[in-house]
Design goal:
mainly alpha, 13 helices, 0% strand
């Protein structure tokens, strides 16, 4: 298949922007991106609404700012929800203002109570309480005024969403990829600790890696729910399937880690010294496989197929551990059981890594 041509002005501008900011840490790039989208949305809203209805300009700008999310998908969801909520709230505020009459406080109380009760059942409509309050507070609510204010709110909402799609857009799928890359980095860190665990046990480092992984995994799951435009990675794998694949690999690594560290006390020093190089080879191969997956997910040019030596490394480590377990170590009665636990962890690591590579990496780098 011929490579796609991305030389259009839009792609060229975006590529140049990403190239200029690629050296910045991710949090700073996110701040810059949101700042540019905010500036564009604010300027566009001001220029459009100020000449039409200056009285409601502030509500339009506020709506534009509240719509911009961390991804274009989230901005779209915000825009749909806020538009629906704004229209519903305007209807509630106008009807109650006309029906109740008298002091505005009475219509206001009933309007916001009713709007918030609806939002309790359908949280996506919680913005309705805002427009309900705005309209109900009018001394003499009129249909034209309610429509004008609601229109300004909806216009600002739409402009905010459009800015997210046109100015340095980031899709929900891309944010899932970022979170998955973080979790894969955590897997590499745990592999390093597993190698060290043959001779030492760093509890604090392990606890820190576990905390980071769980945080990144939860972020990935939440971003899957956020994604709307595309439910698959660029490699074609479904987002939820990709998250489950990384989680399964992590559990396999945890099994291997526990087998290496928790069972170490039941293995003789000579057996540990003999087994260490084989475990080190498994760790090195697994980390290379993860690096290959990361490169493929990033779409790096020249991401090469990594030789699949993990299977051979695991086979050698497994055979070596089985040979040690078959020996009659009278001074270490539980050594065979401990070594078989290590073998189980090695097998699970190989199996889950193979499945993850099939899920996340395109065919040419599997």
């Amino acid at each position: 298949m011929a490579p796609q041509d991305h030389t259009s002005p839009k792609h060229g501008t975006l590529d140049r922007l990403r190239a200029v900011t690629s050296h910045l840490p991710r949090p700073r790039r996110e701040l810059l991106r949101i700042g540019l989208q905010t500036a564009a949305a604010t300027l566009a809203t001001y220029l459009l609404i100020a000449g039409i209805d200056a009285l409601d300009l502030s509500w339009a700008i506020i709506s534009a700012l509240l719509t911009i999310g961390m991804s274009a998908d989230l901005s779209y969801t915000n825009a749909v929800n806020r538009t629906a909520g704004a229209c519903l709230g305007a209807v509630i505020g106008l009807l109650l203002g006309l029906l109740i009459g008298g002091a505005a406080i009475y219509a206001l109380l009933v309007a916001v109570i009713l709007a918030n009760m609806i939002a309790t059942i359908w949280p996506s409509l919680q913005y309705g309480a805002v427009t309900a309050a705005i309209v109900a507070l009018e001394p003499d609510p009129e249909l034209a005024a309610a429509v004008s204010r609601t229109g300004a709110i909806v216009a600002g909402t739409v402009i905010g969403a459009v800015a997210s799609f046109l100015v340095w857009p980031v899709r929900g799928r891309d944010r899932v990829e970022i979170a998955l890359l973080d979790t894969l980095g955590d897997c590499k860190d745990l592999l390093t600790l597993i190698d060290q665990g043959v001779s030492t046990d760093e509890h604090e480092d392990r606890d820190a890696v576990h905390r980071r992984f769980l945080q990144h995994l939860e972020i990935a799951r939440s971003r899957v729910d956020e994604a709307r435009g595309s439910s698959a990675l660029r490699t074609g794998t479904g987002l939820r399937s990709a998250v489950r694949g990384v989680e399964s690999l992590w559990h396999a690594l945890v099994i291997l880690d526990r087998a290496v560290t928790a069972e170490r006390g039941d293995i003789s020093d000579s057996a540990l010294k003999s087994l260490a190089p084989a475990v080190d080879a498994v760790q090195d191969s697994a980390k290379r496989q993860i690096d290959s997956i990361i490169a493929a997910m990033k779409g790096l040019h020249g991401a090469a197929r990594v030789p699949d030596d993990l299977r051979d490394a695991v086979a050698q480590a497994r055979d070596h551990a089985a040979g040690l377990a078959s020996r009659n170590a009278t001074d270490w009665p539980h050594q065979a059981r401990a070594l078989h636990a290590v073998i189980f962890g090695l097998n699970e690591t190989e199996r889950q890594m193979d499945q993850l590579r099939r899920r996340l990496a395109p065919p040419d780098v599997r």
